[in-house]
Amino acid sequence: MSPKLEPRSTASMPEEDKKIQQALEALRKEYDGLHKKKIETDTTLQNLEDQLEELKKRAEAEYGTSDLEELKAMLARWREENARRIAEYQEHIQSIKEALEKIEGTSETESTS
Questions:
Q1: Can you give the residue range of the structural domain that contains 48?
Q2: Which of 68, 70, 99, 102 has the most CB within a 10 Å radius?
Q3: Three state DSSP letters for the chain
Q4: Number of independent structural domains in the chain
């Protein structure tokens, strides 16, 4: 908490005391600003910690772990699996195209005969 000094009229103060009074007032304002910033930072930190806990719970529920390295390994396995499935699907599509080309080729030779 900022030290509270009763303000005095500076009109009758010696110049040295006025400078001290001004310096104290500037320090008080700086302290108040820093104190406000600390409260805001503490609030933000608490909100982020709460969000992290919620995300950890969701990860546990959905993936069985909230360990970052385990989640990274799972993601890598899923990506590999997706790549494998895409390759298989591409092969399947290619086999369909080839079968259609054979059918179309057979159809064309029959119609020209």
A1: 12-65
A2: 70
A3: CCCCCCCCCCCCCCHHHHHHHHHHHHHHHHHHHHHHHHHHHHHHHHHHHHHHHHHHHHHHHHHCCCCHHHHHHHHHHHHHHHHHHHHHHHHHHHHHHHHHHHHHHHHHHHHHC
A4: 2
